[in-house]
Fold this sequence. Notes:
With 323 residues, the protein is α/β, with parallel strands linked by helices. A hairpin with a 2-residue loop joins β7 and β8 (140-143). Helices cover 44% and strands 16% of the residues. The protein contains 14 helices and 13 strands. It is globular.
Amino acid sequence: MTITAQEASWFAETFQRLVANIEQAVLGKTNVVRLALTSLLSDGHMLLEDVPGTGKTMLAKALANTVQGSHSRIQFTPDLLPSDVTGVMIYNQQSGRFDFHQGPIFSTIVLADEINRASPKTQSALLEVMEEGRVTVDGVPHAVGSPFMVIATQNPIEQAGTYPLPEAQLDRFLMKTSLGYPDHETTVALLGDASTRDRAATVSPLITASAVSDMARLASTVHTDAALLAYVSRLAEETRRAPEVQLGVSVRGCLAFVRAAKTWAAAHGRTFVAPDDVKDLALPILSHRILLTPDAEFAGARTEQVIGRILADVAPPTERGAA
Length: 323
C-alpha cells in the first residue's frame, strides 16, 4: 500500500520537528541533520568523517537524545576487544551455566567514536550487527532490536595508530558525510553560549523508538517508479565502468540508495520519489562506496568529481517507466 498525501504531509511535518529539535545542539547544519535523520528512518547507519571540533559527536548525541530509547557510546581504542562491543558469556555459579551479558551495541542508537582507532578484528565485530541487526556469540544469535542505528565518527587527519575501514565495512554505512566548520554567524552564536559545555544535553526526547519504526515503515511505502529504479541502476553501473574507479557501487549500495530516496521524498511531503531525490543523495550515499585506482588518486582525481561527472552523463528519467 502506497503512502497517502495526508500521511506524507504528516511525515514531513514530524520530520521537520525532529530536525528543529536536533538543531538546538547542532547549529547551522540543517542538511547534515536531515541526512542523519534520513539514515535513521531508512534503517541505515551513518559515518561522520571530519576534522576535530566540528560537532560530530554532538550531532550523534543530539540525535540519540531526540529518540526516547536507549543509546550508548563506545570509545574505540586500539586495545578494545570484540567482546567489549558485542557482549560476553559469563559463567553463573548459581545456575551452573553460562549467561550472555549484553555489550553496549545493544542500544537504539550507538555512537562508535573514532571507529578507525580500533583494530580490524574489533571493527569486524560490527559487520553482522550492522547488516542483520543481531550478534552471534558462541553460535547463539542475539537480536539488538529495532530501530537500531550506528553513528560512527573518524578523524581523517590523524593517521598514526589508526586502521582504515575496509570496503566491506564502509558498504554497511548508508551514508558518509561531514559537517565542516560553521559560518561566521553560527560561530558567533556558539561563542556567545560558551558556558554550555554539552549542548546535546539540552535536547529532550521528541519521539519514541516505536514511532521511529512506524515512520520507517511508512517511508518504505513511498512509490518508486520503474524508471527511477533503472536510473539508480545505471548510475551504479557507470561507477563500475569509470576508468578512475577500481571498485564501484554494489547492489547493497543500490538498495540503500532506494531506501534513502524514499525517506527523503517523504520528508519533503511527497508520495513518490523524484529524480532530484536521487541527485540530492548521490554524494553521501555513493562517495564511500567508490574506490579510486592508485593512478587516479596520484593524478589528483577525487570521488566527488567522478560522481558529479556520472550524474551529468546519465540522463534522469523524464517519463514513467513500464509497469
